[in-house]
Fold each of these.
Amino acid sequence: MESADLRVFHMVAREGSITKAALRLGYVQSNVTARIRNLESELGTALFLRHNRGMTLSSSGKTLLTYADKIIGLLEEATQALTSSDEPNGPLTIGSTQTAAAVRLPALLASYYRQHPEVLLSLTTGHSQALMEKVLQYELDGAFIGCECDHPELQSFPVFNEELVIVSHASVRSIEEALTKPILVYSTGCSYRAVLEKWLQTGGLAHPTIMEFGTLEAIVGGVSAGLGISLMPKIVVAKQEVEGSIRTHAIPESIKFMKTEFITRKDSFVSSALLAFIETLPRVDSE
């Protein structure tokens, strides 16, 4: 099995389409198709189920993909290790929750880039679980997540300690009144949403009206307009609270604080760029 064929398979699996994979790889479609067919012939099994909406992995394809993630990740890591220098340089791909990216990272990333201008820094945002998966698949060098990480292949340390609050329109005077309003949340997978839903459930507080939004800005804007309430770090709405468009409400001590952790793979090569980045991060008490 050639590594080039494995890379083609990996891209088709991720894109779900020969056409999209060919564009990403810079190949003609016939070349990609031929490589997939040769790989299936070599392995003696169909790797994809073909249909009019594209291609989905067969059970054999899903098995191969788990190995492809690791093999390609290790190949890229080997290249990185052999070309690494003591001076931080090259690509550094970091993931983050939207809240951390909005209020915690701008100053941190700006400071890092001033010190290490040869590093090609990129930032991807997403939910904590999705970010963990991207680190596991070698798609990210590290990520800031809004929950505790206990995955055996990942290592983590807390970098920020966030005070969570219920946020509402300024006209809402009490948390009891706030909890009668619609809840504005990210889609399933958001750590703050999980905390809020668990609190409501364990407290016997029925709350059927949930509105999903795709961005932090949309949620904050909705709260400011009086559309509903949300749960988020107090620091996110500090400006709006001072301006008087939003009111914050304290929640029970047992769920009041949540740590943002930085995660990396335990077995990954730590490049000079990643090491320098980790050294710039703050640390908070893990207790």
Note: The mean pLDDT is 87.
Amino acid sequence: MSVHTDWLLTLSQTKAQLNDQGIDIQLPPPSQLELQIEYLEVTPGKKIKGKVLFQKRFTNPIKTYQGGFLTAAMDDHFGPLSYITAERPCTTLSLNTTFLKPFSEKMGHCIIEAEVLQKTKSFIFMRATVYSPDGELLAHGDSHVAILREEQLQKVNV
């Protein structure tokens, strides 16, 4: 079984456990499915790595991948990484991206690797890097998330 298939099974089990606790959560999220992310490596509490296919429908006027969609793809790495690190839902406090080179159609796909820099009782700090298939650095980003407490989960109807 592939890492991606194992990960989808884990998400399905997680969803069932949370639903049993009265927490309504959608796993995998529609954004992950829309961006067609294939997870290649998942190390709970440490890192998650995935492959993102180039899709023409997500391009900007100069026909390269639009930065917001690339940031969303990074966020779809930060989200699951934060969840498996905290073992509960989290919410993004900040998400910053720096673009170095365009993600173009000729690349076919890019690789995103997100890692945990630090976890505290209430927060997780993460960094992601985006590479071309040849290993060229295209972008990097940082995310800071808050680990949701029980009373916070009830307020957001998660």
Note: The CA atoms of residues 118 and 131 lie 23 Å apart.
